[in-house]
Every structure is written in structure tokens, then in C-alpha cells.
Amino acid sequence: MSIVMRKVLAVNFSICLILLGINHRLSAQGTNIIYGADGANKHFLVGNLGYTSTAVKEKLKVEVFGGAWHNFNLGEKTYYISTRDGIKINSETHGGSTGRFELKVFDNGSSYDFVIRLTTTYLAIQIKSWILKGGASYGQYFETEFGVVSYDPSGKTDITSQIAVNELIVTTNGGNVGIGEASPDHKLSVNGTVGAKEVKVTSSGWSDFVFEPHYDLKSLDQVEDFIRENGHLPDIPSAEEVEENGISLGEMDARLLQKIEELTLYVIELKKENAELRKQSGRIDALEKALDELIQTKN
After folding, report:
1. Does residue 66 contact residue 124 with C-beta atoms inside 8 Å?
2. Residue 73: closest CA among 61, 83, 82, 64
3. In a designed cystine with 31, which of 137, 148, 151, 190 is the match (CB 3.0 to 4.6 A)?
4. 3-state secondary structure of 236
5. Is 86 left (phi over 0), alpha (psi -120 to 50) or beta?
6. What does the pLDDT read at residue 9?
7. What pLDDT is attached to residue 39?
8. What is the biggest distance separating any 2 CA atoms in the chain, rounded to whole angstroms?
9. pLDDT of 23-58, one tens digit each?
10. Which of 163, 263, 159 is nearest to 207 (CA)?
11. CA distance 88 to 73
């Protein structure tokens, strides 16, 4: 299709939308949708895919930029959708763009409609949607931009609740990153395991204070009493506290080192006590020997 023809179609499509009273417009980079107080519960068709079967060879990609007019929705949400082997939706959120819209899925009786629904008022979003074609023309690449239009869900079956959206990665407006975590509250929040060759933790405090002359080292009797009363070591959180609050890796390493250094001091003290006991045992042996010799002399 020529560039001139594309422009003519875009202009004609925009005119049709204006005549229909739809408050959005096409741009060279997508469809802009802007609403004030009347924005809630508006629906826009962003793509359509067939029922699950081997006949389905297309995939759908939808990008939504924006949200609220405020700068906390300064980002983009992307959906990756396939229905060939069952409905599967992956998504990515960047820059906190999650407010004021949601993805809905409707069964129209012959296929699935994918729809962006405006959930509240006063918003501005830009939608770009593509159908990635597959099929008989092997070796060729087809990607068709889907024309976003208003959508009437009447008479269709809303099946959104039956579909789990797999949130691949989330970045907030403040720079937090979530992997498998929809609302990351740390610079990196991971809902799952992490594999790494090495992890470096910087910490402002370490536990060498244990070796300072005036460190208050509890006696073993005091430690025993504490364990009997509380069920865990002094200065170490309980299982309930860890389950509720988690642990800070750097802080916990420092506390564990503190316990190791305390154990070292206990071992040193026990060694001294053991050496003293050996001396006393030697003196007792010597006294016993002298006593035996004295008894033998008298006999």
C-alpha cells in the first residue's frame, strides 16, 4: 500500500470516528484517546483472535501509553496475546502505566475480542495494536496495525476473569523493578528464586565490635535462660518475625557473624578454663602421689 493511500485511509477513518462522536484520534504512532469527566466505562476494540485451535496462526500485541494526566502514569503497558494453544496473555508494565484502563476479553460467539476498557475519568492514553500474521506464506513477514475503534460489549460474554495475565516484568514510576511481582516496593522485587554466580551486599556496619574490650558478652547461663524463654538466640529474629517481615541479607549476615564471634570468645574462654583444669588436675595428681608415698613410708 502506498504512503498516499495510507494517509487517505487514516484521514477517512478519523472523519468516521468524529462523525460517530468518538473522542479519540489517530496519530502517526497510534490512536490517542482523551477523556475528562465522561471517560469511565468506555470500551475500545484493540484486536480479535480466533477460538483456540491449530487454525489460529496470528498473535496480537497491544501497547498502551499513559493513563492519568498526572506524571505518575508516565509509562507504557504492553500485552502479548495468543489463542492458538489456549488463551495466553503476557504483559509488561514500564514507568507505572497501569492506572485508568484495563484489558478485557469478550467471547463474541465466533471469536475472542480483546478490548481496552477505561476504568475511570480524566485520562489520556495512546493505543498501538498489531496483528502478527502467520499461515501459508512461509518466509514472509506480515505485521498489520489494527485500527482501534469503539466497542459495544452488549450481547458478548465477558470471560476476563477466566484468564490469568502473566505479568513478566513491572517497573514503577519511581524506578522499582518487579519480576513476577505486580507492585514492587523495592528497587528489585522478585516473586520466585534468583540464581547468581555472586551477590555483593554493601553494609554500613559489621560485627567486629564483639572483640572490643567493653563488649557485654552474655554468660552461657544467660544465653541458656534466654533460649529457654524465647525459643531463639539473642539478637536474632524469631521464626514468626522472619515470616512476617523477611530479613535483610546484609543485616542478617552481620548478626550471624556476631554470633560466630561470640562463639569464638566462648571457645577461647573454655580453652582457658580447660587449661586451668589441667593444671589443677596435675596438682591433684602430684598431691595424691605424695600422699601415697607418705603412707608407704609410715608403713
Report:
1. yes
2. 64
3. 148
4. coil
5. left
6. 41
7. 78
8. 133
9. 444 444 689 999 988 878 899 999 999 999 888 888
10. 263
11. 26
Contact 56, 36 (CB under 8 A): no
pTM of the predicted model, to two decimals?
A: 0.69
E strands, the chain, are 24-27, 30-35, 43-50, 59-68, 76-82, 88-94, 101-107, 111-118, 123-132, 143-145, 149-150, 157-158, 165-171, 177-179, 188-190
DSSP letter for each residue of 154-219: TTSEE-GGG--EEEEEEE-TTS-EEES-SS--SSEEESS----S------S--SGGGGSTT--PPP
Q: What pLDDT score was predicted for residue 55?
A: 84
The rounded distance, in Å, linking the Cα atoms of 268 and 249 is: 28
10 Å CB burial of residue 60 (0-12, 13-18, 19+) is buried
Q: How many CB atoms lie within 10 A of CB 206?
A: 12
Radius of gyration of the chain (CA): 35
Specify the 3-state DSSP secondary structure of 44. strand
Residue with cell 498526572: 70
Specify the 3-state DSSP secondary structure of 269: helix
Structural element, H or E, at residue 98:
none
Helix (H/G/I), strand (E/B), else coil: 280: helix
The letter for the amino acid at 169 is I
Choose among 66, 75, 28, 56: nearest CA to 131: 56
Nine cell digits for residue 272: 582457658
Kindly state the cell numbers that stand for 63. 501497547
Q: Give the pLDDT confidence of 129-172 residue by residue, as tens digits.
A: 999 887 665 555 556 677 889 999 999 999 999 999 999 999 98
Within 10 Å of residue 87's Cβ, how many Cβ atoms? 18
